[in-house]
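Reposting from the mailing list since nobody answered there.

I have sequence plus structure tokens for a pair of proteins and want to know whether others read the tokens the same way I do. The first protein:
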Amino acid sequence: MSILHSTAQAASAPVVGLDTLARHVPARVVDLATANNVEEQELMLRLMEIGFLPGERVRIVATGFPGPDPLAVRVGEATFALRRHEASKVLVTVEGRP
């Protein structure tokens, strides 16, 4: 399952996993990773349901301490906690800083 969304910005900017984004760097969702099994399909549906859709603005607002999980991720006007492996399924392009 893949959401294909192409824009001029997406074509010019590299696409990275949300899990690799630094804190407070603005980005936009361009796609979700392809699901290889039923469990990943369920994860992709959950990510879409909570708002990780192409075109949505996202940013990491906090990371876990002392370990790397969870990530506090702002998508639209809501904030969610995601594990790094979940965030890696959200593909984004970095936007210029406001």
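The second protein, same order (residues first, tokens after):
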Amino acid sequence: MIKVSVMYPNTPGDKFDMDYYCNTHMPLVAELLGDALKGGAVDSGLAGGAPGSSPAFIAMGHITFDSVESFQQSFGPNAEKIMADLPNFTNIQPQIQISEIKL
């Protein structure tokens, strides 16, 4: 099982609409990726590790798949539609990481 994490750095002055992300963007992603998508979650950053510090990321979206190949096969044909929706909720350039889930 793999997890694709889409992380939005917390930069002062940038915009991020969490309501749109959770209620419109993520359902769009789920619809487009279909049965290849095994699950998903959204994290909303609260704080950094030091008392009083800001979170490194304002938000993170996590989606799981059986394999990197199943992610690529489902995402590739839909990448343009998914990426075109980003300006509707953020002006932040996301960072992407694909990880193997160990536990």
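Reply #1 (J.P.):
I read it the same way you do. The two ends are 10 Å apart (CA to CA).
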